[in-house]
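Take a look at the protein record below with the fold in mind.
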Amino acid sequence: MSALRVLGCSGGIGGSNRTTSFLLNQTILIDAGTGVGDLTMDELLQIEHVFITHAHLDHIACLPLLIDSTIGARTTPVTVHATAATIAILKAHIFNWLIWPDFSVIPSVEDAFLRYAPQELGESYFIDGVTITPIPAEHTIPAVAFQIENDRSSIVFSGDTVGGPQFWQVVNQITNLKTLIIETAFAERELPLAKMAKHLCPSTLAAELLNLQSSVEVLITHLKPADSDLTIAEVLNLDHIHPIRRLLQGEILEF
């Protein structure tokens, strides 16, 4: 049995809202949004691997702070798994000595606190009883979704995406799929903005879910705080095919 703890699943901050991050079996992060900041120091020190869907700030905000906050007590580096394109963005725009120190060379290249592990589409990585595989996602910057699988079942986390045929082709080939976590960032009135930002809104989510060939549970994430209640109400009104509900911060998905 594996456990995926929802540290953050909001599309923004304010009050109790935390942005996207999941803790998998204590040692693995899936994205590193502001939800990571609620972990204790002991919990932070257990994290050895971070899998990044894409480099937008709400998905990486706590990655630099995680490394900086734990270097005095950490005996192993943090390994960041991402596509070569995403790693290039992190190197150029985050760990560049201007925004944040380049921990991939501190204290030396050989003993760095940060290590990069390029992982392209379809390349599986097995750790701590789970296999994590990047699958296609379509967003405004290079992005992936993740299939998270153990010997019992799979969860797919879409990251930020508008879906698309390549995404659904892979998802529909997963015979042990238990749960699909998929974003719906905007309310229906923001349809033009959703299209521009390559996010889903209720009507485009409903259209995309017509491609889902199994009746697995669908959990909605990345709701923008100002319209979160409106958006989830619109989602529930539009999709009557799948068991569907809002993903909740703090819940633990066992699979």
The two ends are 6 Å apart (CA to CA).
